[in-house]
Task: structure prediction
Amino acid sequence: MALVPGIHPFLTVLSQHAAMTALVLGGLLLSLFYRHFFARPDELAGMRGPRNTSLLRGNRDRLNVARTLEWQEMYGRTFKTHAMFSMSTLFTSDLTALQHILNRDEIYQKAPIIRWGLSEMLGRGLLVLEDEEHAKLRRIMSPAFSPSQVKLLTPLFLDKAMELVAFWSPTNNAGWTQFNVVRGLKAVTLDIIGLAGFGYNFHALAPGGDGSTGVTALGSAFRALFESSQTRVMTPVRFLRGVVPGLRNILPAPKHAVEARKAMERVGMELLLSAKRDEDGAEDRRDLLSLLVKSNMAESEGQRLSDEVVVAQIPTFFIAGHETTSTSTAWALRALAAYPEVQSALRSEVQSLGTDSPSFDTLQGLPYLDHFVREVMRLHAPVSFTNRLAMRDDVIPLSKDGAWTDVNGVVHESIIVKKGQNIQVPIGAVNRDRTIWGADADEFRYISFHAHLDLLKRGMSRPERWASPLPAGAASVPGVYSHQLTFLGGPHNCIGWRFSLAEMKSLLFVLVRELEFALPDGWTADDIVPASNAAVQRPMLRARPEEGTQLPLRVRRIGV
Result:
């Protein structure tokens, strides 16, 4: 007899089997989750920190730079929070501890779930690899980002910046026009990394481009992949697929992500094959693709890279090479619009050169531009946090004043971590730490236009924070650039940091010479805030976060 009237007994049996299978699978999953998240002891149980606000998401929804600084004021420089499924996470902004964590990459590596998430989108790129694979790939690619190679790319940076000016002011109208500048910045930086690294033209700024990803197949793939909240944010479903490999077939990746990955692999293989055909004429070239192809065709097994690894670097560097630089430049334009005196001072400096095509060395010799960029990068690190996982037990040293007190009042002068401990490196919080940078660490410090003119007369020109000797504490920040953590430090520092800074300075040089920027009428800088709970701190509107990444500014040509 059928359990449900009108349903064939055979179908009833099938449904019973399906229900039993689902019940067994559910029980197995619950067992796995319990063992993975809750059964293991919390090694940080005695460490103070904010209350866990969600069994499912932990403190993740509250995670941002401002909140981290608040927690640091409450609990000290070392405390714990909770990640997905309430996993305990060690937070420390102690500089001695960070020096240890960032330099001991054989112990502290990206968590497997992070590496899996990146590899699912980009393949086995530099951001995914660890240990000798990572070191080998960096050795091969480093010449593409050397000072001498970046010097050769400066004319390309400047030319593309002028294309952006034309893109933003096609009619040469002298009046103000308001639009979202993020689209153009993403377009120009995507064009630059495509041409500079791989000889691939996205045509993102060309007629017919959409102002962000261009008209090419790869550009469309990028838009599908990175404008989706499903791939930008670590949702519980993505998290579960990361920690339980068996779920990856049951809960497949979003269709658009799979299609985008295939498109990137297809274009990457086309670029690789084309470069192999031209390999004879590329012996002395130092662009990224030429270096990768040279290693791909090397006779030595120790130097050879597989096709898979070479192809994976192409989308990796397209993304890393344009997302962060476009975001940093957007925050720079927001600062210029918010502080007109800074904009005037910077324009005075760049116009004093008397040329619209300065060399790399000339750009580096502009002190106000240099120190303006330093302040922007300090205050608006495009990536505010990075993750590490302890691959074995360790004891993390602390600075002399970095001891932490547990919930029982016991003082600890080091941090004992066990294998598998999750660690969050608070990049943005270190860059804004008042104990390092002073009471105004959370503010954009600048000098007035008139003070700048006075400094010019005396042969000086620089924003105030960088004019004086840096605070003693800043000298210990373990970063590769300007005593900041923006580009990290240690073996996994950002390989393209020189490239990114030269590109940003070139863009600002041209944009400030040719255009004037202002906030929309009635707006303040506080109306534009970083995206919360996102890997890259893109600007968005405080009042309308659901509208996504945007930076509306009023823009007009100068001298038209």
Q: What stands out?
A: The chain has three domains: 1-39, 40-122+386-425, 136-385+429-557. Residues 34 and 112 are 19 Å apart (CA to CA).
